[in-house]
Amino acid sequence: MTSSTGESVATRYAADGVATEEPVVRLEDVHKSFGDNLVLNGIDLTVATGEVLVVIGPSGSGKSTLLRCVNLLEPIQRGRIFFEGEEITKKGVNLPALRQRIGIVFQQFNLFPQLKAIDNVTLAARRIRKMPRAQAERRGLELLRSVGLEEKARQHPHQLSGGQQQRVAIARALMMEPHVMLFDEVTSALDPELVGEVLIVMRDLARSGMTMLVVTHEMQFAREVGDRLVFMDEGRIVEEGHPADVLDRPREERTRRFLSRSLQLAHSLEELSITDEVIKEEGGVE
Ligand SMILES: Nc1ncnc2c1ncn2[C@@H]1O[C@H](COP(=O)(O)OP(=O)(O)O)[C@@H](O)[C@H]1O
Ligand SMILES: [Mg+2]
After folding, report:
1. Nearest ligand (C-alpha, residue 188)
2. Residue-level pLDDT at 265
């Protein structure tokens, strides 16, 4: 996979002359409320260059809000957020320039239905970065190839499966050459058989060295691709560590409860799909 993350602008030199890399993203005591609803309650978090940080937690725990704050889609009430060493929550930040450096992919793909895949991928680069069409198309095709969709470049979204549309959305985000990619439950709206193809693209992106902040329910992905795992509940980070440690040996009771509920759900879903198959095989329900 080709990813041009470019040179970090934030490599600083410590007093002894050793290069110390700033984290790509750093949150310091971040508080976010919607009205009276305190949604992020003092979040401290860093994502290092090339790191894949996975965030898990129950619905409503503030995971999406966290990503939206990092991308400055939401203002925060207290604390600070840094991107490559520079505070981005202070006044006067160049938002469009910053957003180009922070790619985000949502559960809903939000492709333009009237545009072909290649045009969805290249639109922002042509409009915002004024990239010439031929150059944008070359790069767009490269990116579509990297997500396994070069032959679908001329198709419209409705001619693509959900998994393919989500891969187009990932290629579109990569087109702006982000230094970090945020993923918000990007496989949650997909049919189960389409989840794998999207996770493989994300895994390959991680292997190519992309810095990633990934909110997901896919525990297998968290375990295999994540460098670090954070469990959030009620706007706080309850526990963090190496994915296998947190998943297999959670220290906190709340983490244990959440994981055992997820596991139970996975089992009962498996049973459901077995029942489905049995019913189909027996020709019971059409
Ligand atoms: N735009 C918004 N306006 C008001 N409340 C919001 C908004 N976005 C999220 N919330 C609230 O913030 C809390 C956390 O939501 P969210 O970050 O979406 O959690 P998660 O992604 O973990 O499910 C929820 O109580 C939700 O209702
Ligand atoms: Mg969410």
Report:
1. 2
2. 73
DSSP label at residue 140: H
The yes-or-no verdict on residue 114 having pLDDT over 50 is yes
CB of residue 255 inside a 6 A radius of ligand 1: no
From the CA of 60, the nearest ligand is 1
Atom of ligand 1 lying closest to residue 184 CA:
21
pTM: 0.88
pLDDT at residue 196 greater than cutoff 50: yes
Q: Is 165 left (phi over 0), alpha (psi -120 to 50) or beta?
A: alpha
Measured by CA distance, the residue closest to atom 27 of ligand 1 is: 60
Taking CA atoms only, the protein residue closest to ligand 1 atom 20 is 60
Question: DSSP strand E in the chain: where?
Answer: 11-13, 19-21, 25-34, 37-47, 52-56, 78-83, 86-87, 102-105, 180-184, 211-215, 228-233, 236-241
Q: Is the CB of 60 under 6 A from ligand 1?
A: yes
Q: How far is the CA of 107 from the centre of ligand 2 (A)?
A: 9
Please state the rounded mean pLDDT for residues 184-210.
Answer: 96
Describe the crossing of helices 192-207 and 162-174 by its angle, rounded to 10 degrees. Answer: 20
Ligand 2 center–CA 19 separation, angstroms: 36
CA atoms within 13 A on the CB side of 170: 35
Interstrand relation of 52-56 and 211-215 (parallel, antiparallel or unpaired): parallel
Interatomic CA distance for residues 248 and 263, integer angstroms = 12
